[in-house]
# Entry
Amino acid sequence: TGGKDRRSGLILTIPLCLEQTSMDELSVTLDYLLSIPSEKCKARGFTVIVDGRKSQWNVVKTVVLMLQNVVPAEVSLVCVVKPDEFWDKKVTHFCFWKEKDRLGFEVILVSANKLTRYIEPCQLTEDFGGTLTYDHMDWLNKRLVFEKFTKESTSLLDELALINNGSDKGTQQERERSIDLNFLPSVDPETVLQTGHELLSELQQRRFNGSDGGVSWSPMDDELLAQPQVMKLLDSLREQYTRYQEVCRQRSKRTQLEEIQQKVMQVVNWLEGPGSEQLRTQWGIGDSIRASQALQQKHEEIESQHSEWFAVYVELNQQIAALLNAGDEEDLVELKALQQQLSDVCYRQASQLEFRQNLLQAALEFHSVAQDLSQQLDGLLGMLCVDVAPADGASIQQTLKLLEEKLKSVDLGLQGLREKGQSLLDQISNQASWAYGKDVTIENKENVDHIQGVMEDMQLRKQRCEDMVDVRRLKMLQMVQLFKCEEDAAQAVEWLSELLDALLKTHIRLGDDAQETKVLLEKHRKFVDVAQSTYDYGRQLLQATVVLCQSLRCTSRSSGDTLPRLNRVWKQFTVTSEERVHRLETAVAFHSSAEKILQECPEQPEAFNEMEQFDEIEAVGKSLLDRLTVPVVYPDGSEQYFGSPSDMASAAEHIREKMKLVSLKKQQLRQPEATAPES
# Structure
């Protein structure tokens, strides 16, 4: 109860009841109770109060004798509280007195109201008439909490010490095995610590709180002993638990590091294994756009699989960066090595994927340009294979221009193909840098041969088209020349027709005198020379068309019609020109003879001895007048007059006037001849 005797020894109260008391349980209980005080308290001895008021003498006697075996050295006085009427004093007193030397302690029988003779009332509970406050159930509950805390904390300390000590010694493998076996304590350290703090707080509160009477309550010695024990256990628990938390942190960090290392190796093994093998098997570039697109689709599937592992790489890299920022020196080297290994493999694999993608894109562009160029060559070849049948020179020029544009487009396409092909060859030459030691010479040779074969084939096709274009260009230029000759020949016919028309309509005058007529005759000869040149030019052009037609192996559409037209117009011009010359020459003879007669003086009559000259002049004049009324008859039987009837009438009138002058002159000369005989 916490009460003490006059020697400051603790008072042990044993209340007996009517029910049968188990001596074994009582012995165990006494052993437990006597284990609570400290050795210093035990040295002061105990005063035992055996409350036998509700029990039998035999039981009381047995209990007293048991005290000899349980605590003989510590018991100094045993007070047996007897009932008021049942026991025989003499017998009982005599028996205990008789056994005093053998028992080793003094036993007295006393009633409850007389107990204060031996023990102070303030050290006795109310059951014995004292004033000591004691709640057995409260003490029991607190003691159970203390015992539970002590047991759990002691067991927990052993477990934590085993875990902590196992992590501080031995090899890494032994530490990990020790930690694995004892990693989780049997009880929660936080719960035990909380229980200990609550118990310590309760013990400290009872120590400093006063009683109802205001007198400071004296704590029990077991509580004084329990408080430092609880504090000591709490300190030990906090220390071991702190170490345990560090062990757990280290273990968690090690586990996390091992998980990261495992994931890193998974990423590395996949990228260097199946991932690299996928790229090793994909070396072709395809032989067409469709084949390259199929390879690109396959590569996208490979990239999709790699993307999942690259996502794991990003996550792992973030985890490693977080651990590096934590700054644990012992793990820095290992973490950096893992990070470097992971980054090297991922970047190398990403570079290979990018290289492969660029290679396939370059191959697709190469095949696209090759296909466009092939279509251009097919179109050009189809154009060259169609026979040229243009309507005129302008359409030929347009066709020739289109042909040149197509050829230029083919040149540009071939140049673009060479550039794409060379770029692709350069990339293929670098393919060995990521082949992981695999000999890709054979595969690369196939790709290189294919690329070079495509470029050579396109070059040959382009060269054949160029040769055909050269032939077609020559043929079309000859056709342009043919059309030009035909057009110029037709123009020559037109010009010659215009000259003929001008000759008939404007070359009408015959001159007023011999001099003027001679001038007209000279101009007419020059006019004829121009017509002759035009005719010769047309003949030469038509001869050129014949040669060109023979060269082109075709029949001219217009030369067969133009030549007869040219000859017909020329014959008409020749007939008309000859008629014009004949009229002018007749006019020259008429004007010369008439002017000679008219200019002769009368004093020279001998000149007119012969009248035949007058007759000749009249005959020439009449002939000329008659010719002016006659049309020009062409070889085809057609007729054409010079000028209009009024123009011819004007020319004839002038001839008649001169003939009248000649006739008058003739008459003047005849008159002297008539008068001479009469005289």
User: Anything to note?
Assistant: Residues 3-134 form a domain with the Phosphatidylinositol Transfer Protein Sec14p fold (CATH 3.40.525.10). The first strand starts at residue 10 and ends at 15. Residues 441-506 form the longest helix (66 residues).
